[in-house]
Amino acid sequence: MTEPMATPPRKLKIATVSLAGCFGCHMSFLDIDERLLPLLDLVEFDRSPLTDIKHCGPCDIGLIEGGVCNAENVHVLREFRAQCRVLVALGACAVNGGLPAQRNHLAVGDVLQQVYLTGHGLAAGSQIPNDPELPLPLNQVHPVHEVVRIDHFLPGCPPSGDAIWAFLNDLIASREPRLGHGLLHYD
Amino acid sequence: MTTPSPPASPPTFLLDGQPVPFTPGQTVMQAAYAAGRYIAHLCWHPDFSAHGSCKLCTVQANGRLATGCTLAAAEGMEVHTQTPELQDKRRTLLQLLFVEGNHFCPSCEKSGNCQLQATAYEAGMLTPHFDHFFPARPVDASHPEVLLDFNRCILCELCVRASRDVDGKHVFALSGRGTQSHLIVNSPTGRLADTDFAASDRAADICPVGVILKKRVGFAVPIGQRRYDAQPASAVDVASPARDNA
Ligand code: SF4
Ligand code: SF4
Ligand code: FES
Q: Which of the ends of chain A has fewer CB neighbours closer than 10 A, N or C?
């Protein structure tokens, strides 16, 4: 009689996204280097800039890089909240708006005019883009927690690969993530 | 012949269970600091009188909450600084300071040398949590040697005290009420260039955060060698009294 095959433990599903981000937090994630391989034994990626999946399915963990700066960001963030059991604000932009929120003291119309109408080096007849395909910018940049409930915050611009690794290991093991001196930074 | 009596031992109080000696008239903060013990603080500085605004130094003494920088030390008093309740309140106070200003550390010249930031690290603050105010106060770059970014001010008045009490110049003041309180420059135009402020003033080096910044020296210290890179605030701020920028 043959032993019944042990069912391998179900892999956790992780989705990631960059909203008003710079992709630096994703780069820092990849900075875990060869530790990606053991990670892939434990998790599988759903929607992410690293996969071809277009919409977020039911996931265990969602990592959000970037703040919320336009209408599409809001929709994507809500999709992630609806699908992910645990949602993580990854990096300074997601946590507090980050450097993009330095536009918050300017009127968004003035910024668009400056860039597309009155700025240097524009071709004659340049206009502010107005195709409905394009998401409208919000009047201010917001941290993600001002739009949906966030379960965990991992600050840093970007958080280091080591911080992300420690954090993910805690999450995967269902421990409250802890970052000691050196791993916790805001810059 | 009489033997000289041994010198009377100074009175003590208990700080998190450990005795701390004090001389009558000292506050809990002063005595703790003199004994090399750390109590979180932002508006207190050993060279200046207490201010009592940041509330970071809140301790539990004989069962009640009080600010350690204004509470007189008393014989036998039991002072606690690390109860879960106090750590929670301290984190909340820090979060409030962060959302009231524009603390974009990734581009701040003070990052790594900032007492607010280092104190928040030590408190394990992972998020400012509350909705942001995003204030929009214009910077004052009028002075040839010093820049002011008012959006990072925590209203500790150390610059006010240093300019008034040490430099004798009265360059800074707080103005406004409630959430509108803000730092101003005492000149007819409100510009720093129109005061007798100098980069060698004590007030130029006293700001615990990134408001009063000397020009052309930002980002000179490599990451890893900044004031709070190697050690947390509790080790650094007790070991070297002047946390000043100099
Ligand atoms: S003053 Fe301190 S806390 Fe504020 S942005 Fe600068 S480094 Fe960060
Ligand atoms: S400018 Fe700096 S020293 Fe002056 S009140 Fe503000 S935070 Fe304190
Ligand atoms: S240090 Fe005591 S209130 Fe600020």
A: N
